[in-house]
Amino acid sequence: MRFKLLLLFTVLVGCIGGAFNVSGQTLQSVKLGWEASPSFNVIAYTIRYGLASGTYSYLTNVGNQLIGTVNDLQPGSRYFFAVTAMDSSGNESLPSGEVSYDVPAIPLLPPSITLSSPIEGDSYVAPADVTLAASVLDNGHTISMVQFYNGTNWVGEADAPPYSLVWSNVPSGDYVVLGRLVYDSGSTVDSGPVSLSVAPIPLSPPSITLSSPIEGDSYVAPADVTLAASVLDNGHTISKVQFYNGTNWVGEADAPPYSLVWSNVPSGDYVVLGRLVYDSGSTVDSDPTSLSVTMVGPPWQTLDIGNVGVEGSVTQANDAFTITGAGRIAGTRDQFQFVYQTLSADGQIQAQVQSAAGDLTNNCSGLMIRENLATGSRYALVGVGQNLALRWQRRANTWGNSFGTTSGTAAPPNCWIRLTRTGSNISGYKSADGTNWTRIAGRNFNMATNAYVGMVVASGNTNAATTSAFSNVSVSP
Amino acid sequence: MFSIRSFRIAGLALALLAFSWLAGAEEYSASDTNIVSDPQTQDDNLQPIVPAEPATLGAAASVNLLQEGINEESESDLADNCAQTIPVTDIAAKLESILADGSIGAACLRESLVRRWATNDPVSASSWAAQISQSSAGLDAVRQVAVAWAAVDFSAAGRWLGQLPETDAAKEAMLGAAYEAARDQPTVALEFATGLGAGKDRDNLLAHAAAQWAVLDPSAAAGWAQTIPHSAIQQQVIASISAALADTDPGAAADLASISLSPGEMQNRAAVEIAQRWAENSPRDAAAWISMFRVSALKDVATQDLMSIWTEQDPVDAADWWKRLPDGRIKFDASRAYRQALDHPNQFSKGRQNQ
After folding, report:
1. Distances in whole angstroms, Cα of residue A48 to Cα of each of A7, A17, A44, A53, B200
2. Contact call for B180 and A398, based on CB within 8 A
3. Which B residues 172-201 touch A at CB under 8 Å?
4. Of A418, B112, B121, B214, which has the fewest CB atoms closer than 10 Å, so is most exposed?
5. Which residues of A touch B212 (CB under 8 A)?
6. ipTM of the assembly?
7. What is the set of domains in chain A, with CATH numbers?
8. pTM
9. How confident is the model at residue B55 (pLDDT cuts 50, 70, 90)?
């Protein structure tokens, strides 16, 4: 019994009876139809099929139907089909004519790509280094590379996992980046776009540094102190530089070189700073700088020896000094204004007395070598005293009495005086012209090696001061 | 010549000593005090500063004038000489005999006697001074004993002063004693000074004693100064040491001042003092050091001092140096100081004296 097998149609039933994956493929079905067997006693048909012609390894009983469906066919394979009929006695006919069917292969899903960096909305600061990285699912495809794009502009590519690179020095702006996966023979698939922003470089605030004075600078009063600042604008608009003494405004400069002269600064310790005003009124301060203004310049120092009722003062102009002092240099203790420096062993001080005020007993304006700064110290003195008498005076013993003598009359400014220490001897001299000198007196002192030498002014009264002037002051210390 | 007041002193001495002593006193005043007559003012002939009416002054008035220091130079020498002739064992009796005398001569003699007594028998002298310490003469005596005793035994003098009522006079005496000790025993004075309360007295004593120590043992003094907690007083002490050290080792002094002093007034002063002393010993080396200063007022001053000292020593060499300076402020300062030194020579140069 032979009959004609008619292939009616094939239907891809991807998931009939539940799809399962075999090597990533979905199994398929085919529906067959055939003409009825001419035999009258047929009760059932069987579809026999296999992967080789004439060899039917599989069968499906379909009953007394003229159509049947064969499931679970392997995609991409060629199957060969035939139908047999069975009569009521159980006899099976020979197979029908054979038909074949190529089960179509299921196409592969495309690979996929997702940017893992940056993340949507990420923000950076220029110049930014942005890491571009992609996660790839190959779906059975051959991955060639991942290309990264800034919009349509190629940025770079990575041909192997982890498919990442660093996009360097990205300037400020808004960007949309994507990854493009290149696979198989040049096919591509893009990731979703990711937006990122790179903010512009924030402007650093401007900076200001005082270039003058320098920390620790010292001046002599009344001082003219140059205040100057170095400014780095860092792109800002500089309005001006203000200079402050502590919290007190001193002055300001609105253009380079940002400097001014702070004039007539009296003696004292000061802390100054520069305040930079920029943009719309923002300010930044320099570091503070300490300076001192002293009544006298180095190496001179000033001190009221003993207890005076009126504080002494000094002004200096190079080697000229105007000294105001109260007190008396007498008896066992002294009070006077001392403008001095240290004296090591031998040495000398010399000066021209420009003026010597005061007509009281124990008034004196002169030069002194003094063992220490206590009121009862040993000392030797040459100077101009009451009624312009040239005077030599000394205290040979600590807390001892003072003794003195006079040697004529001075006529300032034609009056020069000098004290010289050589070994233990201290001698006083006078001169009318600074050239021809006459020794007034001298004495041996048991005085410490390191002593003090300088100018003295004592009014003769502890509660009233007088002023004397010296010039051409020189010391060999 | 001998003044009327000298004769008053001599008269007092006469009462205490033999008549024959007066001639010796007059000779002493002329030869040992180094008071040389001024040949240009022969008539002045070293006039003593004479009280207005010495012959009519009472005791109180005389003491007052003494406190004002109106005394003749030779007067004290006369008193000193007189005191030297009195045996130590007789000093107490002599002092008692003139204690009530308010004259200048008596005060001078008391001072000399107390000093001599305290030097030779401080225990007896201090005991006597303590007994009369409530009087004006007693306060003078306490100070004189303290100073004289401290010169030989500061600790003993200190212990004695510590037993006296704590008065300003006692404090003054103690401070004077410390200064006296500082001359030869600076570490003793420093130890005392460190125990004083903060203030000008303490700071000045510290700086003074440290400078004396620097003469005796520079490295020890400098090392000790470094141990003082950083403060104004540490800076003052180091500045003082560096100035003292500069006389013998200016290079070391310069290092000390550069490293251990903070920029500012103290360092500036020390720098000039070192430059001065260095210039006295080696102006070329000093010039090299000063050349390293940044242009500033400090450099101006140091250059001027250098030139003054150098010109005194060797004007040719000094001129050679400043003329090679580049034009500018420093050269101007140097040339001005050079000319000034030529116009008004100081006539004193350690460098020249050491040659």
Report:
1. 13, 21, 13, 11, 126
2. yes
3. 172-173, 175-176, 179-180, 182-183, 201
4. B121
5. 448-450
6. 0.78
7. 5-102 (2.60.40.10), 112-199 (2.60.40.10), 212-294 (2.60.40.10), 301-476 (2.60.120.200)
8. 0.67
9. very low
